Structure formats: C-alpha cells, structure tokens
Amino acid sequence: MTKHVAVLKGGWSVEREVSLVSGAAVAKALRAEGYRVTEIDVAPDIATRLAKLAPDMVFNALHGRFGEDGCLQGLLEILKIPYSHSGVTASAVAMNKIMAKDIFRAHDIPCATDSIVSPADLFISDPLPRPFVVKPCNEGSSVGVVIVKEGDDFNPDMPGPWQDTDRIMVESYLPGRELTVTIMDGRALGVTELKPRSGFYDYAAKYHDGMTDHILPAELAEDMTRRIMTYAETAHDILGCRGVTRADFRLDDRPGGDAVPYILEINTQPGMTPLSLVPEQARHAGMSFGELVVWMVEDASCGR
To answer: Exactly one of 35, 201, 207, 231 is catalytic; which is it?
Structure first.
C-alpha cells in the first residue's frame, strides 16, 4: 500500500511563512516519489485532525515555537504517529539556547561568552562590552536578533526580543565567517560559507533570493573543515538528535583572529525551501531533493 504522509506546515509561530514554503516543497517532492500526501496548515485542533486522518507518518515542516521545541513531538508520541526529525528532548533542548550551550561547553565545543538578563536589566547598563548580540533564548532563523555596536543608541523602544519574553541572551559579537553544516544520520555532509551581500545573515538574508552567496564547499583548510564537521556531529549526538539537523558556526581565521569555530546553535528543523541549506548540501553530496525527503520519511520514528 502507498504510505500516507501528513505534511505539517504553517502554524502560528513567527516563522509561519517560511514553514508554508518548506511544507509545500516537501509535499510536492513526496507526491512525485509516489507517496499519498495530505498537507495540513497546523492550528490548535491538530491532535483531533491527526487522530481522524490516521496517517502512517508525519513530516514535520514546522519552524519555531510549538513545532520545533518538543511540544508537537510530545503530541505525536501520545498519538503514536512516527514523525521526522528529532524527538521530544532533543527538540526542546536544542531550541533552548541556554541549555544547549551549557551542554556544548561541557563537551568542549566552543561557544560565545554570554549573559542571561531580564528585559528590565538589559538597559540599565551593557551586560557585555560592545559589540554584543541580543537574541531570544528560544527562537530560530535569527528571529529577533539585534547587534549592538559602539555608539549605537540602544533603548527599550527599539524593536527587539525584549518586548515579548522575560529572558534575554546577550552574547559577545563574534567577527568572521558564517559557516553551516548539515548532519544527516549522524554524519556531516559538508561545510557551507554564507556571505550576506549586506549586513549580517539575518532572517531576510536567509529567505530572500539574491541576498546571500553560498560557498560550497567553504574555502577552509582541510583540518579546519574536519574540526567544524566533528563539532557539528558531536553536537547532534550529545543532544540526542536524529534524522537531519543543521549546525551553525562563526570563525575568525583572518590574521589576528583566534581561528576558533564557535557553535551558534543546532537547528533540529532546518528549512526545506528552495533557498535552504540542507537540500543544497545534500545535492552537493549527490542526493536529490526527492531522495532527501524520502530518506527523512523512511527514517521517521516514534519513541526515540
């Protein structure tokens, strides 16, 4: 019998629009590969809809809160429906930047210096020397990230994550190159360098065509490539991730730089849009988009 796959997309997080694009791309590819596919724009009644639909598995194409942080994964465990990507614990920990960085440091993966503050304390005095980065503790895709430089007028009336959360992560700004690694079944596929044509690699640069150049493979010394890939594989493993993830790094290997690859985060639900990095790295490794999503469907599980 043809396997019935429910592709979950959309939802209500700030990353809704990207998720809709990811989900549509996945659904199209799975249909072309012969699967029976039902696309669901996720709403709070998702448990009732899935129980009635009774799919063979769920391809989770949601991004951001609820879909990526262990909540949906827990629901699917209760319903006993196999699903793509990481399980409950790995999803929750990876989404929580504070917990994830504590674990990375404990396993000797370099991380940026940080300070966790309340919105009220953020503007009393600079938590770290400038330049520093302000980010929410539980969002992805660079949502809400603000870089504060010398001379900037930094005040609570500016748009930023302090307006809708009670805990803020402030990190030392890491100069240098933006690098990313796809991990598939515990193995790193390669390293891509991301070169925004202006500004930094923010939400717009990630999802608007023409704003960022992708250099694959990144022009790095062989030992540095291996070091970064090993850190990515280790991060995937120690958080208990499964399936496909993506780890992001910063590296300052210019003269005078410290040449240390610092991990920024591991993304358990990486994008699957036409501009996304995972399909690009899989293609470079010899795997078509269709082959990639088929592997992810067949890798789906429940209870691990």
So the answer is: 207
pTM for this entry: 0.92
Beta pairing partners, 146: 134
Q: How do residues 55-72 score in pLDDT, each as one tens digit?
A: 999 999 999 889 999 999
CA dihedral 75→82→247→94, nearest 10 degrees, is 20
Domains of the chain: 4-85 (3.40.50.20), 94-110+175-294 (3.30.470.20), 114-172 (3.30.1490)
* Residues 246/235, Cβ–Cβ less than 8 Å: no
77-117 pLDDT, tens digit each: 999 999 999 999 999 999 999 999 999 999 999 999 999 99
Q: Quick check: is 15 catalytic?
A: yes
The active-site residue out of 248, 250, 262, 280 is: 248
The yes-or-no answer on residue 172 being catalytic is no
